[in-house]
Design goal:
Low-confidence stretches: 404-412
GO molecular function: FAD binding
Shape: globular
Protein name: FAD-dependent oxidoreductase
CATH class of the domain at 7-71 and 104-176 and 276-349 and 389-410: Alpha Beta
Pfam families: FAD_binding_3 (PF01494)
CATH superfamily of the domain at 7-71 and 104-176 and 276-349 and 389-410: FAD/NAD(P)-binding domain
Domain FAD-binding: 7-341
Strand order of the largest sheet: 5-4-13-14-15-12-16
Structural class: alpha/beta
Number of strands: 20
InterPro entries: FAD-bd (IPR002938), FAD/NAD-bd_sf (IPR036188), FAD_aromatic-hydroxylase (IPR051704)
Length: 412
């Protein structure tokens, strides 16, 4: 078997790209990660690692370190427009987690993965792919900075709005399916004095929540709302903040204060809730990974786990099929596609529970939550609601790739 190290350019230093760099380096490849941000991203929302992804972290030797970085959020509470509590429960039940699952801040996970993938990995921060040409023998890459490079393979791990995907497979409108909702996330002052708590407000077509963790002084706010298509891609930050404010005009609870605080947030995010669906994830010497290939949307709760599992499998298959990238890409997609599609199915179903359509539905849901909150065994009843997430999180048999005497063989 040919085990000569191969040069691989990874576009994107998110969870998928960093995890892939870790595994490629361990398998004897020479990875380069290019990221248009000036450094690792520290913002974003808290994320869950579940099911098969926990096994991947364990095989990386990072599971204990990841669990040490847990947010330690203790309780979740749902309130109405007057701030009256409809229900409170422990945070794991509220977030649909079982005892083994790990909830981390995305930035903490980025740092953990980056620290595990320093040796043998080159990082190009503050740059991006401007153009690429697949010659059949290699990929010629022109970067936005003006530098050029030649790589055996290129991996697009650059998220929902993947520039790599656009260059190789065409524009977003060919691959994105919008779920009719929008999301905004911002770091805000902890004006409510939350102590490892999460509070959620439910309005008609509008959900807003804010939480604090053991690892941050401030708080994070998230807004999730139903809307017809918004023309926001060409807007600057101020324009997007206006759209958010218009969407939540007249809402109760602490929503006006949270909206006002987004103006000073250092990491304001605004995007559609969308999924990526493609007929194939590779073309020639270019392959897609994570959200770039199969974004399940934030509503699925599974994007981070899909990224970790996909990176493990892609690197393992490239090593197991050394010298034949086409066979490796095919094996990677055959293993990952059913898993990705199972988890994508969670998104549309979950968002219906996260955002109520009408005031009547809001009143009914709050009344049921208040009733449930008084019943013994409520945690067991709520756990049944999130069973589909855990089935989906474990809906793949992970092969065990190993290096032995210079060869990497597929053991299972």
């Amino acid at each position: 078997m040919n085990t000569t190290p191969r040069t691989v350019l990874i576009s994107g230093a998110g969870v998928a790209g960093l995890a892939l760099a870790h595994w490629l380096a361990r398998h004897g490849f020479t990875p380069t990660v290019v990221e248009y941000a000036e450094g690792l991203r520290s913002g974003g929302y808290k994320v869950d690692v579940r099911g098969a992804a926990l096994t991947v972290l364990d095989r990386m030797g990072l599971l204990d370190a990841a669990r040490a970085l847990r947010t330690e959020v203790r309780t979740g509470t749902i309130v109405d427009g007057r701030g009256k509590r409809a229900a409170s429960m422990d945070a794991d039940t509220f977030g649909g987690r079982v005892h083994e699952d790990a909830e981390l801040l995305r930035g903490d996970l980025h740092r953990l993965l980056h620290d595990s993938a320093r040796d043998g990995v080159e990082y190009l921060f503050g740059d991006s792919i401007a153009a690429l040409t697949d010659t059949g023998e290699h990929v010629e890459v022109a970067f936005a900075s003006g530098r050029t490079g030649r790589y055996d393979l290129v991996v697009g791990a650059d998220g929902l709005r993947s520039a790599t995907r656009n260059l190789v497979f065409g524009p977003d409108d060919r691959h994105l399916t919008d779920l009719g909702h929008y999301i905004a996330v911002a770091t805000v002052p902890n004006r409510l004095g939350l102590d490892r708590e999460e509070m959620t407000y439910i309005g008609a077509g509008r959900t807003a929540l804010v939480y604090s963790t053991a690892r941050e002084e401030g708080a994070r706010a998230m807004f999730l709302w139903r809307s017809p298509a918004l023309d926001y891609r060409g807007l600057d930050r101020a324009g997007r903040e206006r759209l958010l404010a218009e969407a939540y005009a007249g809402e109760g609870w602490e929503v006006p204060s949270l909206l006002a605080d987004t103006a000073s947030s250092p990491d304001f995010l605004f995007d559609s809730l969308s999924q990526v669906k493609m007929d194939r994830w590779s073309r020639g010497r270019v392959v897609l990974l994570g959200d770039a290939a199969h974004c399940a949307s934030a509503a699925s709760g599974q994007g981070t786990s899909l990224a970790l599992v996909g990176a493990y499998i892609l690197a393992g298959e490239l090593a197991a099929h050394a010298g034949d990238h086409a066979a490796a890409f095919g094996a990677y997609e055959r293993r990952m596609r059913p898993f990705a599609e199972t988890n994508q199915a969670l998104g549309p179903a979950n968002v219906k529970r996260m955002v109520m359509k009408t005031k009547g539905q809001v009143r009914f849901s709050l009344a049921m939550l208040k009733l449930l909150n008084k019943m013994p065994g409520k945690e067991r009843m709520l756990a049944k609601v999130v069973e589909p997430i855990h089935r989906a999180a474990n809906a793949i048999d992970l092969p065990e790739y190993r290096i032995a005497e210079g060869d990497l063989r597929l053991r299972k």
